[in-house]
Amino acid sequence: MTITKTEKQSLIDLANEARRRAYVPYSNYPVGAALRTKTGRIFTGVNVENAAYPQTMCAERVAIFKAVSEGETDFEIIAVVTNNGGSPCGGCRQVMAEFGLDVVVLFGNGEGKMVHETTVRELLPEAFTPEHLVPDN
Ligand code: THU
Question: What's the CATH number where 101 sits?
């Protein structure tokens, strides 16, 4: 299914709006994500930091875990917005890969402009995926 430019921009907008709810007292680097499932549902996420720094959770994973916890595991596209158009961390790429290498990934910046479009496959070449755990694979 093709995803229109307008749909992509609206996911960037949702991710950018979500950033206002980021809990970032330590880094002051708000990240927002907006994930659309193949059923058309949209889940947003923000980074949630913690005084015990390693317990911080990234925006992308919050969005993905919200979706999975609501019974959705088939994803179409995820938009990630940061001040400077930053790209998803390695941990988030691995979590994305669990649910499909063909998921489209958009990066947006603080002005709400889409700066890059890619896929999980491109972001995580030669990914370790659930298929590797199937016997004889
Ligand atoms: N962060 C994300 O939310 N997603 C990423 O993919 C990269 C990093 C957050 C974690 C932390 O709250 C802040 O950005 C700075 O690392």
Answer: 3.40.140.10
Q: How far is the CA of 62 from the centre of ligand 1 (A)?
A: 11
**pLDDT for the residue 115:** 98
Q: Is the CB of 56 under 6 A from ligand 1?
A: yes
pLDDT of 137: 76
Query: What predicted TM-score, i.e. pTM, was given to this entire model?
Result: 0.97
- Among candidate residues 113, 127, 125, the one with its CA nearest the CA of residue 8: 113
Could you tell me the mean pLDDT of each successive run of 10 residues in the chain, 137 residues long?
94 98 98 98 98 98 98 98 98 98 98 98 97 90
- Cα angle, residue 14 at apex, residues 73 and 54 outer, rounded to 5°: 65
Distance 122 CA to ligand 1 centre (A): 20
Specify the number of domains making up the chain: 1
Element (H, E) at 108: strand 104-108
Q: Kind and range of the H or E element at 111?
A: none
Catalytic, 98? Answer no
Residue 102, domain extent: 5-133
Q: Is the CB of 58 under 6 A from ligand 1?
A: yes
Ligand 1 geometric centre to CA of 23 (Å): 11
